[in-house]
Amino acid sequence: MAREIIILQCTETGERTYSSTKSKTNTPGRLEKKKYNPKVRKHTLYRETR
Q1: DSSP tag of 4
Q2: 7 exposure class (CB count in 10 Å sphere: 0-12, 13-18, 19+)
Q3: Which residues pair with 10 in a beta bridge?
Q4: Strand, helix or coil at 2?
Q5: What does the pLDDT look like over 1-50, one tens digit per residue?
Q6: Which of 17, 21, 25, 29 has the fewest CB atoms within 10 Å, measured from its CB?
Q7: Neighbouring C-alpha atoms within 13 Å toward the C-beta of 10
Q8: DSSP 27-44
Q9: Dihedral sign computed on CA atoms, order 27, 24, 22, 41
Q10: Which residues on neighbouring strands pair with residue 11, listed in sequence order?
Q11: Could you tell me the pTM of the whole model?
């Protein structure tokens, strides 16, 4: 199975701090994760960018 490298962008600050991988077949939509943002010093929502 092929995995795709994606970049995660913060919804609050717009920073692209994290990267991750996802399966192309199991998750057709955009991935969302809660990750730590060091700039605002709290966990925020990160969304996949294309």
Answers
A1: E
A2: middle
A3: 46
A4: coil
A5: 688 999 999 999 999 999 999 988 888 889 999 999 999 999 999 999 97
A6: 29
A7: 17
A8: --S--EEEEEETTTTEEE
A9: negative
A10: none
A11: 0.84
**Structure confidence at residue 25 (pLDDT):** 85
CA dist., res. 3 & res. 5, Å (int):
7
Confidence (pLDDT) at 9: 97
State how far Cα 3 lies from the chain centre.
15
Token code pair at residue 22: 């996802």
* Separation CA 37–CA 12 (nearest Å): 10
- Domains and their CATH numbers in the chain: 3-49 (2.20.28.120)
Distance between CA atoms of residues 46 and 20, nearest Å: 11
The pLDDT of residue 36 is: 97
What are the structure tokens assigned to 43, written together?
């966990």
